[in-house]
C-alpha cells in the first residue's frame, strides 16, 4: 500500500513560499529577511455588508444566474444596420431631450450638461439665444429623460434632440437594438457643453450631410459587424473608449466603396470622408452602441449580480444590475484624475459625465487598457499602469471575452461582466478612462484621465439584491 501520511521533511528542507494578505507589516518584515513574499491585495468586506453578501452568495441559483447573464452579453453580435434621425427611431417629439447618466432635473444639472441642453434648444429652433434657451429650460418646457431609458447611449452630456441622427445597432444573436448619436469630433463640441455658432453649424451639417450620406452607405453595404472591427482594433492598439484610431480606420475601409457608390453629390461624400477620417474618435459612438446592445442582452436575469450599465450625468454616477431591473443605484460623480489641455487644471474640471462607461461595462475601454499602451500619453501614467489596471479588473469580473483579446497578455480575453458582489468583497472599483469636460457651460473639453465609480453604488445594489433574495415576491411587487 502507498503511504498516505503527510510528509513534513520537504517543508523543513526547502525554501518557504509565503503569501501575505491584508496588513503589510508581515510581508515587510519577511522581505527585510530576504524571504520571497507574494502579496495579495485583500481586505475584508466593508462593515455592514456581511449579511447582504451571505444572502446573495447563498441564494440558490446565484452562480447560474450570473453565468447566464454574462453568457448572453458575451454571445451578443452587434451589427450597424442603419443611420436615422432620433425623431424617427426613438419617437422623440420637439419637447423631449435625452441625456447621459441616471435621471436628472435642470436644477441639479452641471455646467456642461446645461450647455449641451442650451445648444440642443438652439439647434431645434426652440430658442434664438442662449439666454432664452436657459430661461425656457428653467421653466421646464422640455422633458428630460436618460438615454438608457430609450435603449440609447450618448457620450459626455449625451444630449439627444429629435433632429440629431442616430446609429442603429442590432444584436443579431438576441434581437435587441441600441442607438447612439454621431460623433462630433474633439474640442468645442456639444457633448462637452459648448454651444457657440460653430457647434450649431457643425450639428446642422451633420444632420443635413453626414447622417444621410452614412445612411446611404450603411444601407448599401448591409449589416456591419462591429464586434469584428472591435476585435481587430484591440490588436492594433485601441481600447475603444479614449483611443479609437484603428477602429475608425477599419470602419471607413469597410464602408469606403459604399460611400463612393452612395446616391449623393461627390463633394458631399468627400466632406464626409474628410470629417470622419480627421476624427480619431469617430468609432467611439458605434462602440458604445455595440456595448449597449451586448449589455442589454444580459438585463433582467433574476438573481444575477452582474452590472449592465454604468453612466454619469455630471452630477451623479449610476449603475444598473441585471437582477434588479431598471432601478438605478447612484452616488456623487468624481472628478477624473488625468492630463489637462493648455492652461486648464483640476479646478476647471467638471465631475465625471457620459454614458461612454458602457464600454467598460461590456469589457473594453478602461478594462482593455493593456491593449493600448499608447493611451497613457492621453490619460496619464506609465505603460505598466495600463497593464496593471486591466489585470486588476479580472478580479471583479465573471468572464473573459472570447472575441476581444489582448496581445500583450498572450491574447487573453478582456475582463468582462462586472460582478457587484466581487466589487464589494474586494474593494476594487472598475477603472474608466474618459474625457474631462470643463466645469463652466460652453468651455468644452479640458483634458482626459481615469476615474472610478463611488463605492457606495455597489453596496446599495448588493443590499437590494439581498432584499430580493430574502423576499422575491415583495421585490417583484416593487418592479425590481
TrEMBL record:
<protein>
    <submittedName>
        <fullName>DUF1116 domain-containing protein</fullName>
    </submittedName>
</protein>
<dbReference type="Pfam" id="PF06545">
    <property type="entry name" value="AllG"/>
</dbReference>
<dbReference type="InterPro" id="IPR024033">
    <property type="entry name" value="OXTCase_su_AllG_h-dom"/>
</dbReference>
<dbReference type="InterPro" id="IPR009499">
    <property type="entry name" value="AllG-like"/>
</dbReference>
Amino acid at each position: 500500500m502507498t503511504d498516505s501520511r503527510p510528509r513534513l521533511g520537504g517543508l523543513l528542507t526547502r525554501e518557504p513560499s509565503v503569501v501575505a494578505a491584508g496588513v503589510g507589516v508581515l510581508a515587510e518584515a519577511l522581505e527585510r529577511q530576504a524571504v520571497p513574499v507574494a502579496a495579495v491585495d485583500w481586505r475584508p468586506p466593508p462593515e455592514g455588508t456581511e449579511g447582504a453578501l451571505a444572502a446573495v452568495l447563498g441564494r440558490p441559483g446565484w452562480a447560474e444566474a450570473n453565468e447566464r447573464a454574462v453568457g448572453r452579453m458575451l454571445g451578443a453580435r452587434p451589427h450597424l444596420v442603419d443611420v436615422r434621425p432620433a425623431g424617427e427611431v426613438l419617437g422623440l417629439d420637439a419637447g423631449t431631450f435625452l441625456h447621459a447618466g441616471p435621471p436628472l432635473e435642470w436644477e441639479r444639472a452641471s455646467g456642461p450638461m446645461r450647455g449641451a441642453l442650451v445648444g440642443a434648444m438652439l439647434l431645434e429652433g426652440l430658442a434664438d439665444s442662449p439666454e432664452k434657451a436657459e430661461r425656457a429650460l428653467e421653466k421646464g418646457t422640455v422633458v428630460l429623460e436618460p438615454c438608457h431609458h430609450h435603449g440609447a447611449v450618448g457620450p459626455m452630456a449625451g444630449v439627444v434632440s429629435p433632429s440629431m441622427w442616430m446609429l442603429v445597432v442590432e444584436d443579431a444573436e438576441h434581437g435587441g437594438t441600441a442607438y447612439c448619436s454621431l460623433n462630433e469630433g474633439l474640442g468645442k463640441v456639444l457633448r462637452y457643453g459648448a454651444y457657440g455658432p460653430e457647434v450649431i453649424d457643425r450639428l446642422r451639417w451633420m444632420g443635413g450631410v453626414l447622417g444621410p450620406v452614412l445612411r446611404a452607405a450603411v444601407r448599401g453595404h448591409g449589416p456591419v459587424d462591429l464586434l469584428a472591427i472591435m476585435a481587430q482594433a484591440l490588436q492594433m492598439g485601441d481600447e475603444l473608449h479614449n483611443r479609437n484610431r484603428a477602429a475608425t480606420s477599419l470602419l471607413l475601409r469597410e464602408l469606403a466603396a459604399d460611400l463612393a457608390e452612395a446616391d449623393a453629390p461627390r463633394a458631399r461624400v468627400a466632406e464626409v470622408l474628410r470629417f470622419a477620417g480627421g476624427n480619431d474618435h469617430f468609432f467611439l459612438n458605434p462602440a458604445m452602441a455595440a456595448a449597449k446592445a451586448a449589455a442589454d442582452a444580459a438585463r433582467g436575469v433574476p438573481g444575477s449580480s452582474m452590472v449592465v450599465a454604468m453612466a454619469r450625468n455630471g452630477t451623479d454616477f449610476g449603475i444598473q444590475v441585471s437582477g434588479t431591473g431598471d432601478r438605478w443605484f447612484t452616488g456623487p460623480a468624481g472628478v477624473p484624475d488625468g492630463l489637462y489641455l493648455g492652461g486648464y487644471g483640476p479646478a476647471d474640471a467638471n465631475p465625471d459625465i457620459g454614458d461612454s462607461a458602457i464600454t467598460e461595462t461590456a469589457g473594453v475601454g478602461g478594462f482593455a487598457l493593456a491593449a493600448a499602451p499608447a493611451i497613457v500619453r492621453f490619460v496619464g501614467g506609465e505603460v505598466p499602469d495600463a497593464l496593471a489596471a486591466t489585470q486588476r479588473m479580472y478580479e471583479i469580473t465573471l468572464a473573459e471575452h472570447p472575441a476581444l483579446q489582448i496581445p500583450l497578455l498572450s491574447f487573453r480575453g478582456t475582463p468582462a461582466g462586472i460582478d457587484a458582489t466581487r466589487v464589494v468583497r474586494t474593494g476594487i472599483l472598475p477603472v474608466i478612462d474618459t474625457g474631462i469636460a470643463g466645469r463652466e457651460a460652453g468651455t468644452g473639453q479640458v483634458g482626459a484621465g481615469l476615474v472610478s465609480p463611488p463605492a457606495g453604488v455597489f453596496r446599495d445594489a448588493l443590499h437590494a439584491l439581498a432584499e430580493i433574495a430574502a423576499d422575491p415576491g415583495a421585490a417583484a411587487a416593487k418592479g425590481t
